[in-house]
Design goal:
This protein has 103 residues and is mainly alpha-helical. It has two helices and two strands; from the N terminus they run αββα.
Length: 103
């Protein structure tokens, strides 16, 4: 399964801002194991036994706390880092340019 990340990057923003404290907490082992199990299952559901470039579907799963002490936004994916960065940029553009629809 592609590259897995157990925590977000700690590379500081280039515009001089500080790191967001929401993205500065380590992922505990219980959540890390759950994310990995879910990712393996999702990959199997969407791609069967295909691996690497033979897979048909990519996914990214993000986990973040709604409330309580500051946490982190963790993600796990079956895509590589460059694909995920491109996907997230495209998705943010869609969110910012499309009208908000309430379901």
């Amino acid at each position: 399964m592609g590259r897995k990340s157990r925590r977000t990057s700690r590379v500081p923003p280039t515009d001089g801002r500080k790191l967001n404290p929401l993205g500065d907490m380590p992922l505990d082992e219980i959540h890390a194991e759950k994310l990995q199990r879910i990712a393996r299952r999702l990959d199997h559901i969407f791609n069967g036994n295909k691996r690497g470039l033979d897979r048909d579907w990519g996914f990214a799963l993000m986990l973040f706390p709604f409330r309580g002490m500051p946490g982190n936004c963790h993600y796990i994916s079956n895509g590589n880092r460059a694909q995920m960065i491109e996907l997230l940029r495209e998705q943010i553009r869609r969110f910012e340019t499309q009208p908000h629809k309430v379901n």
